[in-house]
Amino acid sequence: MNGVTSKQLIGFGIFLLAIFVGVPIVIAATGRWDFYFTLTSVALLSIASAGVWLTFYIGRINIGQGAFALIGAYVSAILVAKAGVSFWISLLVAGLFAAVVSVLIGLPILRLRGVYFAMITLVLTQVVTLVALALPITNGAKGITSIPLPGGISLLGLQILPPFDSMADTKLAFYIMASILMVLTYLALWRLVNSRLGHICRSMQQNEELASSIGVNIAYIRIIIFAISSFFGGIGGALFGSISQSVYPSSFQVTDSVNFMLNCFLGGLGYVFGPMLGTLTLYFGWDLLFTLGKYQLLVYSVLLILVIRFLPNGLLSLRLGKLGKGGGK
Amino acid sequence: MSALLEVCGVTKKFGGLTAVNDVSFDVGQNEILSVIGPNGAGKSTLFKLISSFLRTTSGEVLYEGKRISDLKPHVVARLGVVRTFQETTIFKSMTVRESVIVAQHLRAKASLAGYFWGTRTARADIAAFGRYADELLEFMGMSAMAEELASNLPQGHLRALGIAIGLATDPKVLLLDEPFAGMNPEETMRTVNLVRSVCDARGVTILLVEHDMPAVMNISDRIVVLNFGEKIAEGTPSEIQNNEKVIEAYLGSADDEVGI
Ligand SMILES: Nc1ncnc2c1ncn2[C@@H]1O[C@H](COP(=O)(O)OP(=O)(O)OP(=O)(O)O)[C@@H](O)[C@H]1O
Ligand SMILES: [Mg+2]
Fold it and tell me: Where are the domains of chain A?
């Protein structure tokens, strides 16, 4: 159940090389600098998707991650733009704030199962959007704009990271930052799934009654998992706000929440790294279909249905086999 | 005999239906007590009340003198009173060994965060879980199927896995709901002996619901008989076999496969 095989280590090494060396080389060679923005978006969206995947892991369909992403985006934006707090601190606070909100929401709704839980989470995004429109601190429909770029980090007077606005290539800086956070998120997720908490989640997913009969406080575990899930949502949202330097009530909508869920389905619910692949595929797939014009949504939907119908375990079930498989051995 | 578990005037109503009606009895330390009765007599409901899976309408259950009814199942499990399920209830996509490991939740010394970071306590726990799982499966005679996926097991072994999962929690009192269901006579005999040794060798007090009368008469120290939610008799197997009310209840019911 524990321990890492050498095959996994090599795979992880190749993955890191691809992100941090391969992609910059390819982009420099082709001159497609806009890809940095695209890939940065994929990275931050897959952080939020990782959270949704985790709620799937305890058998709950979560279509509300957009709500927590929006909360995270606003918390960070307000702290940075209005209170002058360092972005790096705001990032953490955004995640924690989203987690606290999710605990308050989760307490009453997490005992619901199946469609009932899904339906309520589906409403959450809209609720947060409306709150953002109504509150003075979020500036209503005007949103928060001109958010300063992340500052530097210094420790004991030593500068570890220069401020983003002093860098020559902020696109690259954002890409590296989002990628590092994505890697950390998935490492944490992988570790969690393979640790005792993960085993307990798996037991709850398979039978909550049996899990409680062996002494698992299922209500508590659900809350913990939902909080971690929303923490990832908040982090993803805060990153988004910082990269686009603006947050609006419409920055994350119900369709985004649905997409976070689809990313997990598409990549594979049985695989920790599934949502990452799902996000990448869905993001690029949608763009590739752009040429189809008004048929874009139709073709996209049909393809999704086909994938879910014929690959119920997601894209990763195609080739990877046991590599990166969640829970198992 | 000092009572370990006391069921005191427990009643459970589902709407207009009284599933358990003012039932009282005691269970002594290291005893095997069976609860029998026709279908729908309220046996499973009684077990759910004892393990706090259901809330009582009135009455209470005491364990070591402390009230354990109307709590949460995991709290009661933590105190040492653990139930198994009448329906086949397992972790389908875990292997036998994984199931028995995850079921040792209550034996964990490290915190959940400790397992995440891999602290020394957590690593010691993990090693101990593995050892205990192997020991338990050996004891259950299930070592050969340790790596088998639970959903692939035949019915008889599924029951045994259910018992193993219950045992892995290190219970003081184990409530077995129809542990011999779906077993052939040979498997039943083996499991009867196993339950006996769970009681004798591991000091676990056993309550069990069962329709297999020969097995019940063989295994039980005492028997409580329910009919339409009410306790109609209590006594040793031979007392129960000769009890007028019991014979009447069984003959009166459509359930003639019981055959006392
Ligand atoms: N959750 C519930 N809601 C409503 N009625 C219930 C519920 N659970 C059980 N009952 C009813 O309570 C009565 C007792 O059920 P119970 O399952 O305890 O019987 P039992 O003695 O275990 O029967 P069997 O031998 O068939 O397992 C039955 O009439 C049943 O229909
Ligand atoms: Mg029953």
Answer: 32-149+168-254
